[in-house]
Write a structure and sequence with these properties.
This protein is of the alpha/beta class. The chain has four domains: about 5-165, Beta-Lactamase (2-Layer Sandwich); about 195-365, Rossmann fold (3-Layer(aba) Sandwich); about 365-450, Helicase, Ruva Protein, domain 3 (Orthogonal Bundle), CATH 1.10.8; about 465-515. It contains 20 helices and 15 strands. It has a six-stranded antiparallel beta sheet with strand order 3-2-1-6-5-4, with helices on both faces. Strands 8-11-14-7-15 form a five-stranded parallel beta sheet. The longest helix has about 40 residues, at about 150-190. The protein is elongated and about 95 Å long. The termini are far apart.
Length: about 525
């Protein structure tokens, strides 16, 4: 190869391989090629055999062109040439003399041109064409075509990488779309309808609608089995984050040694068994919601790191030093008495302040017995479908009354299990026999009488939510010596805007400012 050709090849390769952005590559290549031939534009094209047309992978031109984002259909004559043509380089003195060039140029608004086209191959398989165009016919010489042919290999690599990248982008888009669809389907399967939202859970659902459209932290309080996860679903899927992920974490089910790795991720080699980098639950919940169930089970050391995430909205993977910004809404839930845990130093007070922005107390089933008939019918219908029973049985007369007189210490979950157990037994009976719910009152751990309201961990809050909020805000105001805004102010500790706090102070008749007496 002559020194002039070597210089052309070297500089051309540097221009082609100088960027991963194909538009930037073509812009750079056109400026370079203009030094050697009368070019006004360059195109990368690929033939779509199934669609019988040409797709523009990239185009750069000195003249304005029509935008054409879809496949350009080809005539039968053009397709025949593609199938029979095997020349590596093709010079056209007038583009309208060739059916392929004519169809493409007419689609993008080009005319009165000449061109030289280089067919790109990888291991004898055609992957596309690079075309250089010039204004007016008869502008390219055989030497121009020879120089362009020298750049076959770098152009083939660039085209191959671009096509692979486009396929990755396409598959990523499909996965995102599938993920949204599956999330909607899973939400539908788990139950879009909240049974009792117009009766026993009416106040709860009003609070859900109030907070769903915001980004504020939500704390769900209630006994085991009352449906805290269902309410968390309702908040997420009613919020602007509904198209983002809903990541659920049971804080009590993760071994203490793995909590940091599960929540925040780890780098490869961070510890024995960390064979690859892993994203944590917070990263996976980016732009969506993370539901921290059983937050009261979180060890104190993990509480410190969770508090930092709440304050900075950043995480660090185990074994890593880089901070990763996360846009996540936090919904926490517990069946434990967190204020009492704070008092005995089992739960951090500052974390309690951060989480307790908007508490929602879900009443136990024994306090909303009017929902029991609807819940029984809902579970009978759903379990009948899941168990593929041939017909849907109905409860016997007065069975609903018996169910409503029971205390249900296991709440909605216990009722669901009772319905499923009775449906399993019912399969041995003849068609048409009603459900009788035998022995559910004598199950191990069951209590025949409901506990007194005063003995419940959330009794005070159930009686008067405003009083609970008032006492909590007063405690925070006292801790900050009446300071509302700024770092370490009451609004900062509560995780709300200072104007929102002032509004609540006025609403709850808590004196502040000059009227404050702490």
């Amino acid at each position: 190869m002559k020194s002039k050709d070597m210089a052309f090849f070297h500089e051309g390769t540097m221009r082609i391989c100088g960027s991963l952005d194909i538009d930037e590559v073509l812009q750079d290549c056109l400026a370079f090629i203009k030094k050697y031939m009368p070019a006004i534009g360059i195109q990368l094209c690929v033939y779509e055999e199934e669609l019988q047309g040409v797709r523009m992978v990239g185009i750069e031109s000195d003249i304005e062109l029509k935008t054409f984002n879809t496949v350009i259909p080809l005539s039968e004559a053009a397709i025949a040439i593609i199938e029979d043509e095997h020349d590596k380089i093709m010079k056209l003195d007038n583009v309208f003399d060739n059916p392929i060039a004519r169809d493409v140029c007419m689609a993008i608004g080009l005319k009165d041109l000449s061109s030289v086209a280089l067919r790109l191959q990888v291991k004898d398989a055609g992957i596309g064409v690079v075309v250089v165009i010039a204004k007016h016919p008869n502008r390219f010489t055989d030497d121009h075509a020879r120089l362009l042919a020298l750049l076959h290999d770098p152009f083939a690599i660039a085209m191959s990488n671009t096509l692979r990248f486009m396929e990755v982008v396409r598959l990523k888009s499909l996965l995102q779309d599938d993920n949204k669809y599956l999330n909607r389907e899973l939400h539908h399967i788990s139950g879009d309808e909240i049974v009792g939202e117009n009766f026993g859970l009416k106040n709860v659902m009003e609070q859900v609608h109030q907070v769903a459209s915001l980004n504020s932290q939500v704390l769900l309080l209630g006994e085991t089995g009352v449906g805290k996860e269902v309410i968390a679903n309702a908040i997420h899927y009613s919020s602007p984050r509904r198209d983002g992920p809903l990541i659920k974490v049971n804080c009590g089910a993760i071994p203490e040694s793995l909590i940091d790795s599960e929540l925040f991720g780890h780098e490869k080699g961070a510890f024995t068994g960390a064979l690859e980098r892993k994203r944590g639950r917070f990263e996976r919940a980016h732009t969506g919601t993370i539901f921290l169930d059983e937050i009261g089970e979180l060890p104190l050391a993990a509480q410190v790191r969770l508090l930092r995430v709440l304050e900075t909205r950043e995480v660090e993977r185990v074994g890593g030093s880089d901070t990763i910004a996360v846009d996540v809404r936090i919904i926490a839930a517990t069946n434990r008495n967190l204020p009492e845990m704070v008092r005995i130093k089992e739960f951090r007070e500052d974390l309690w302040f951060r989480l307790n922005v908007f508490p929602i107390i879900i009443p136990p089933l024994r306090h909303r017995k009017e929902d029991i008939p609807a819940l029984v019918n809902y579970f009978v219908e759903r379990k009948t479908r899941e168990m593929k029973l041939k017909y849907r049985p109905v409860p016997a007369p007065k069975e609903m009354e018996r169910l409503q007189h029971y205390a249900w210490p296991g709440n909605v979950r216990e009722l669901e299990n009772t319905v499923e157990r009775e449906l399993i037994r019912h399969q041995l009976q003849s068609a048409g026999q009603p459900l009788r719910f035998q022995d559910f009152e004598n199950m191990p751990g069951a209590k025949s009488k409901p506990e007194s309201l005063e003995s419940q961990p959330f009794a005070e809050e159930l009686l008067n939510l405003d009083e609970m909020n008032r006492a909590h805000i007063q405690k925070v105001m006292k801790k900050t010596n009446g300071k509302i805004q700024g770092k370490d102010g009451a609004a900062d500790l509560l995780g709300i805007h200072s104007s929102t706090l002032r509004h609540r102070l006025i609403k709850l008749e808590i004196p502040f400012g000059k009227n404050q007496k702490l």
